[in-house]
Each structure stands twice: as structure tokens, then as C-alpha cells.
Amino acid sequence: MTDNQAGATRPLVTADDLYLFHTPSDPQISPDGTQVVFCVQRVERPTEKKVTNLWLADSDGRRLRQFTHGKWADTQPRWSPDGRTLAFVSNRGSEEQAQLHLLPVDGGEARPLTDLKGSFAGFEWSPDGTKLVCQFRLKDADALEREKDEAKKKLGVSYRHITRADYKFDGAGYLPRERWHVWVIDAATGEATQLTEGDHDETEPRWSPDGQSILFSSNRSERPDMELDETELYLIPAGGGEMRQFVTRPGRKFGATFSPDGQHVAYFGRRQPGRWYQNATLYVAPLDGSGARDVSGPLDLHLVPATTGDVVGDAAPALPVWSADGRRVFCLATVRGNQSIVALDALAPELAVEWIVAGRGVAGGYTFDRMRARLAFIWSPPDDPAQVCVRDLGSDAPDATRTLTALNPWLAEVATNAPEEVWFKAADGYELHGWILKPPGFDPSQKYPSILQIHGGPQMQYGNFFTHEFHQQAAAGYVVYWSNPRGSQGYGENHAGAIYGQWGTVDYDDVMAWADYVEKLPYIDPERMGVTGGSYGGYMTTLIIGRTHRFKAAVAQRVVSNFLSFYGSSDLNAGLEHLAGTPAPWDDVTACWAQSPISAIGNAKTPTLIIHSENDYRCDQEQGEQVFIALRRLGVDTELLLLPGESHGVSRGGRTDRRVARLEYMLGWFEKYLK
């Protein structure tokens, strides 16, 4: 809540508050629209265990209750078509192996449906409720063999034989040899049938409305680990048999869904391969694949989530959802610091758009009832991490939109301020968007130290979203400010693509223009300005300390420092060329070096803390170590904080004690130099 003058008398946000958050995700509304099931994650402090249970809320807001219990991870709840049964993934039978479970909604115990060895990535009920289609990956044969022998199990992996470029993935580690495939599970017996096979990943399976076939995506090019945008759509009979390609325009495709009559397919794609800054655009094509229509292109909107924060309510991509009459498609739009749910007319010759959920905040995953008359979604306003809401479509009643949860009531007792939105001019006159967060008990007559926050991506956005880290730093007496410079998502394709192939140019200028703007505010002390960021933000922080001495302290996190060594050490592999537009080093050493912050590190004088995760496969640890050793050699005050066992996403999903340590070390560094 906002509480300026009285803020000092209220408790302040601390790093330890990460243990208090209850975070909802994946809201699923019942077919009749009367109930919403969703996941709530909490952290057990003594064990650092993250526990996820299912909760159930009535859509009218009258009743809310925890539906599953126990110290497990119950995730991905899905209603059966008749609304009587919930299927979900849980590790309640084994900490190491999750299975599909079924649970009667009107009471009873959950029972395991499957007994498989491997990983579930998603599933969907058949239209008649007799089967489920799953994206599943078997455990490698050598791993299964080790489990049978205690001595081998104790010794662990003896070697890794790598034959493809996509051999590791951040957050998952080294990938197994087995691939993702399409499986069908009998809902009565649990009998599992593998429909696809081979050395290709088959993902995102979806039932046709008549239940006779299954649509899925797969990259079956000659080199799928290099030709990353060659994903196509395929159809296979639900009972197994020969698959056929859903032939449409070339390019990467994802999130495909059938129209209610099964005659059209909606999917997301990009107009050009190798241009990942481009908007994720909605396409609609007839079932024969001919005449795919770019429905959303004229809107210049990015139709997948791209907002970054550290208390994530729902980060899962939201699929396109068809209206009951098959005319409209609902999508999530990332736009100017917000995320909204929009409806696009899929069949009209002229573009027609309706803003279903909009305003200052971030909408997350969403689902509709059978008639597409009621919508359940995650909503994250600036003052709250996330809550579950419903909206009655076509209603103007005051209670047409209702908040069903209040999962973090303790936040109402904590002193916080609302971020102030600012539009400012870049050096070339370009209009940019930023936010300023003042400390609780702010006194405009005082001079405050400040911290500039720079987001990752770069094709992400900061926005009207609660970020615990920013409030923790503000509570310590800092003015915290952040913006969306060119390269960020949400402001049109030209904005996002402005730095393609030229990181560290106009984006650097935009960040410096933002610092210039804030520095001139009467309550800012220009001699006590700090800067931090992670991933691309770590790239920019490292670039800044090599180009300017205006900041008195810096914290560079999950650093990208050297494009010459980054290529091949990251799980991005060829994706780096698509993301950054940077060539392979052997193709253009000069271009790689020109965009590498390490090239200017010899000018650095700013005391800098480097924070890196030891299991970061996105930005390898050596990227941060290069900066640390360079600064040590230069005699610049520097320290290196390594977080064991953590991946690139430590600030959002790491073990809580390590997240707390990160925040405390970061704040301690700024306290040393800015206070």
C-alpha cells in the first residue's frame, strides 16, 4: 500500500519477506464456469522446500479453500470435460518422479493414473473425457539401469557422450538423449501409448474437436539444433498411425489450437526466421493449411508474455483461445509496461480488436469456461504480486470482474510506495517509458542515493508489476528507478529491433538518458548513484562501468561480457544469432568484440560486485569471472558472489536462502559505497 509520511512507522520490506509470499499460478476455470482451480506455491523455511498445492474458488467469490494438502508439488490442474474430475501432475508418490493423478472434485482421494519413468511437460483431456494426450519424455536407458543397482546409483554418471548442439538447457541441466514425444493415456486404466518416436522433439499436443486426431509441433529439419525456426505443425491419428504435415507459411510456429468446428488452426509465429525481436503474431489458417492469415500484424503487438519480475505469478505462455462461435481468438498482449487480454476477429477481412482485460497491471495465464462467457486469469497490479480473478464477458456490472484471492495479506501492513510512471526523451528525442520508486517516509527536501535497475532479455519489459527487490531497496532508503530502453518488448517491433546486431549503441544512450533525467530531480544525490542488472542487464551494467565513471557502485549479475566466448558456452547456441543479431565469432571477430563489454573494461574504476550462478547454462559463469579477474588486475574494488546449484533464473525461482543472500549482498555493496 502507499504510505508516505507514516511509512516509517510501519514494517519495511526485507529480503527475508521472500519466505512469506504465497504465489498463485495456472488458473483453470471449470467447464460450467462456477469454479476455478489454481496452484499456490509457498516455501518451507526450515527445509527450503517449495510446496505447491491446488486451491479451489467459487467464481462468485463466496468460497475459497485449499483443495490438496501435503508437502508435494501438485501442478497443472485440468478439468475433465464433464467437470467432475481434476487431472494434475504430482510427485506425491515419489520426490524424484511425478505422475499424472486424478481427483474427484466432489470429494475423495487423489489416485495415480500413470506409472511412467520420465518427465511430463503438459497434457490435455480428450473431448469425450476418456483419454489424455501428453507431452512426455522417457528417462534415458542408462539412467534407468543405474537406478536398479545401488552401487551404480551411488557412483552416478561416469561420462557424457554428446552428439547434438542442444545438449543442455538452463534450469534443466544436461539434457537426456530421449526426446519429447506425444503419448496418449487411457483415463480409466492409465494405459500409456506412445504415438510418435524418433530423434525429434514433438511438443504442444492438442486434440481436434472431434477427438480423432492430434495436432503438435516439431522441428524435423536436417539440423534442428541449428535451424531453430524451422518448427512446423503436424497431425497424427489419435489411435496412432501416419502423421502428416499441416502445410502453411514457413517459419517458427507455436501455441497452435483448433477452432471449435475443427476447420481452422490458430497459432503464433514470426514473419521472418532469425529475428527474435519480432512480434509473436497471431496466424489463422484453414485446416488444409492454405491461405494463412496474419491477423494481428497491423496492431504491432507482441502476443506472448514478456514482463519480468521476481515474484512471478504466472510465467507460462498463454495459448490462443477461440470464442465459442469460432469468430474471435483471445490472446495476451504485451504493451507499454502492461499485459492485457485481447480478442481479435479471426475471420473478418478488416482487423477488429477488443480489449477484454486491460489497465495498469500484468495479466498472466487465463482460461475460459465451455461457453467462453467467463474468464479466469492471473492479475498482477503494481502493489500486489499476483491474484486470481474472473471476468464475466459482455457484462458492464460493477462486479463483472472479481478478485477471488487475497493470498498475501501481510503486504497491507508493510510500508511501500507506488511507483511513479514517467515518460522522458532520449538524446535523439525518442520517447521512452520509466518508473521511479521512492522510499517509505519520503522527504522531498532530502537528497537520496539511487539505484538504476536494468532488465534482462533484452526483449523483455519492466512494467506495472510488483517487484520485491525494488521495494526492498527502496525500504533501505534508495530511490529505485527502471525503464524500457530500445531493445525492450512491448513498444512495437521497431523499438524491440532497434539494437538487433548492435547491442550497446542506442540502448546504452537510452539508459544514460534515463540516468540523466533522474539525476536532475531535486531529491537525487548525483554523488551517490548505483547501477545493477542481470543477464542483458548484467551486460549493460558491465558496459556502463567501462564507459563512464558516473556511478559510484555497480552490481553486475548473470553477466554477458564477451561475445567471442559466449557463443557456444551458452545454451542458446545458434539462438544467440537470432536473439542478438551477433554473428558467430569466426564469421566476424570485429563485430563480436565491438559489442563485448570486456573490450572496454580497461577503463573501469567503479567498485563492482559480480553475482553469478554456478549452474547458469544461459550466461556461463566464465562470463562473470572474466569481469572479476579483469577488475582485480586493474585494482578496482571487486568481489565475486557465486550461488551453487542455481540456474540463470535465480532471482525468480532459485532456492529462497540463496535469493535472500543475493539481495543482502547486493544491498550491502550499495550500502558500502552509497551511504
Verbal overview:
With 675 residues, this protein is α+β, with helices and mostly antiparallel strands. It has a domain of 259 residues: Rossmann fold, CATH 3.40.50.1820. The protein has 12 helices and 38 strands. The strands form 9 sheets. It has an 8-stranded mixed sheet, sandwiched between helices. The chain has a 4-stranded antiparallel sheet with strand order 1-2-3-4, with no helix packed on it. Strands 5-6-7-8 form a 4-stranded antiparallel sheet, with no helix packed on it. The radius of gyration is 25 Å and the shape is globular. The two termini are 26 Å apart. The N terminus is likely disordered.
Q: By helix and strand content, what is the structural category?
A: alpha+beta
Side by side, the strands of the main sheet go 31-32-34-33-35-36-37-38
Question: Helical region count?
Answer: 12
The total beta strand count reads: 38
Write down the CATH topology of the domain at 416-674: Rossmann fold
Low-confidence stretches: 1-7
The level of helicity is 10-25%
* Radius of gyration, in angstroms, nearest whole number: 25 Å
What is the overall pLDDT average? Answer: 94
Distance linking N and C termini: 26 Å
Name the CATH homologous superfamily of the domain at 416-674: Alpha/Beta hydrolase fold, catalytic domain
Second CATH tier, the architecture of the domain at 416-674:
3-Layer(aba) Sandwich
Q: Specify the overall morphology.
A: globular
Q: Mind telling me the CATH class of the domain at 416-674? A: Alpha Beta
Beta-strand percentage range: 25-35%
Instruction: Describe the largest sheet.
Output: 8 strands, mixed
